[in-house]
Design a protein that fits this description.
The complex is a heterodimer of chains A (about 140) and B (about 240). Chain A contains 5 helices and 4 strands, in the order αααααββββ. Chain A has about 140 residues and is of the alpha+beta class. Chain A has one domain. The two termini of chain A are about 20 Å apart. The chains are: A alpha+beta (about 140), B alpha+beta (about 240). At the A-B interface, helix 2 and helix 5 of A face strand 9 of B.
């Protein structure tokens, strides 16, 4: 759950390299595939995948990625967000689903789910494979 | 003040409206000043109502004709803010600062003044601007309005000169006097969404530069801003 919180924090605060570092390999490939389908230079995609891209082109790509992730989480009050484990995920085998919740005043009922993060264990640490917002 | 460049109205919709009319209909010259003793609709950026009664408000609008390219039009907001700050500091000993893009604040970050810049653009350049400055004179130690008004006018005149001579200097001076510089903030955007980061400076277009801990820089334009809050988050 700490990874999910760190990932959402990194998205909120524009910590672009942290976001990339917290993405699982499969998620990175999926992001690059979507970007290529939308017109990104395949050679640039290769450089990003192999971590040989220049700082400027990497930053430009990650800034676009951040905007996309923020669009997924738009309207969420990040400072009130907490996370809660919610069982197994469905994107890849062995993944863990974490719900993103915002607490309400007691008289209004339980916390409201506003999104979810799916995590997978990779070389002894948790990485993000999927983010779903409230769109 | 020179009568040809100074008009005063006991009551009007607001000072900006009167100065805009003067500019459009009678080609008011640079430095023309409109003072309104009682504004019926005192509004600032985004049409937000000035919250204080007229008894505690000093307001004037001034016509500027800066030689600026259109893309740098928002630097006028910065210069106007510096001018109002200069006027406020001249009549109040408190340590005042700027809150991007339109406010003058006290040491606690409470708003004691605001500016509005209504910019008229021509082909590729700024043709004129009407800048309005308002001060909460009660918050500035109950100073006399007749003392505050010349101070504001003097501050705005000086700022207009600085803007003509050294627009880059306006940006750097603004950053030095900004309450927000170096602080972690949340910029609430229009129509929705937000940008977060540490305030570094202003860019050549007058946009706020937010930098993340990983070095990513995001520029927030005035037109896209709802409001800014300082984040309680500690690094």
């Amino acid at each position: 759950m700490a990874t999910a919180q760190a990932f959402v924090d990194a998205v909120a605060w524009g910590e672009h390299t942290t976001v990339w570092a917290l993405l699982a390999t499969g998620a990175r490939l999926a992001v690059l595939e979507v970007a290529t389908r939308r017109g990104m230079d395949p050679l640039l995609a290769t450089r990003l995948r192999e971590d040989t891209a220049g700082d400027d082109e990497r930053d430009e790509f990650l800034a676009d990625l951040l905007h996309g992730l923020r669009a997924e989480l738009v309207g969420i009050e990040f400072d009130r967000l907490r996370s809660s484990a919610a069982g197994s995920g469905t994107t890849v085998a062995g993944s863990l689903l974490v719900h993103l919740l915002i607490d309400l005043p007691a008289e209004l009922g339980p916390a409201v789910p506003v999104g979810s993060v799916e995590l997978v264990a990779d070389a002894g640490r948790w990485l993000v494979v999927r983010l779903d917002g409230n769109r | 003040m020179n009568g040809d460049l100074h008009r005063r109205f006991p009551v009007a919709v607001n000072a900006e409206a009167m100065a805009l009319a003067w500019t459009r209909q009678e080609a008011a010259g640079a430095g023309a000043v409109v003072v309104v003793d009682h504004e019926i609709s005192p509004r600032g950026r985004l049409g937000r109502l000035w919250p204080h009664p007229q008894e505690r408000t000093a307001v004037l609008a001034m016509v500027w004709r800066p030689a600026l390219p259109a893309e740098a039009a928002d630097v006028i907001w910065l210069a106007a803010s510096l001018g109002l700050l200069s006027g406020a500091v001249a009549v109040d000993a408190n340590e005042l600062a700027l809150w991007w893009p339109d406010a003058v604040v006290d040491p606690a970050g409470e708003r004691v003044g605001e500016v509005k810049a209504e910019v008229q653009l021509g082909p590729g350049r700024v043709t004129s601007a009407v800048v309005t400055g308002r001060l909460d004179i009660a918050a500035l130690g109950a100073i006399d309005r007749e003392v505050a008004l010349p101070a504001i006018a003097s501050g705005l005149h000086a700022a207009a000169l600085q803007l003509d001579e050294d627009p880059d200097g306006v940006r750097s001076t603004y950053a030095e006097r900004s309450f927000l510089t170096g602080r972690r903030v949340v910029a609430h955007l229009l129509p929705r969404g937000e940008a977060r980061g540490t305030v570094r400076s202003l860019d050549a277009r007058g946009r706020l530069e937010l930098v993340s801990s990983t070095g990513l820089v995001e520029n927030v334009p005035i037109v896209g801003l709802d409001r800014i809050t300082v984040s309680p988050r500690v690094v």
